[in-house]
Please model this.
Amino acid sequence: MKMTKWRRARLLEQLRQHDKEATEIRESLGIGKPDEELWQWECGDIDEDLLVVADGYGGASLQHVEGDGDNRLVHKSRKFDTEEGATKIAELIMNDELALEDGFDPDVTGAAISA
Model:
């Protein structure tokens, strides 16, 4: 069944309203939007970065990437329950307190996140 123009317009307006509400909730919780880059560090070679990317629900991914923008190649990625946990591990790597490869190992980083 084909959707009418009126129904489509109504659903789009509902979507806009829900997006606005979600943005307000995220702001009150102090969490990032989905796919928002919260933290970035150029780690060595040209176009090689370490990123913390929000999932929009309080968690985040730590990503080791190469390239720019849409041409990024993700070498490694690890999901964290909190944005703070992912950022803490990223900062430990940046400060040479944790090896890059260890940042993606839950057995190594578990104590660092809870400390």
The mean pLDDT is 91.
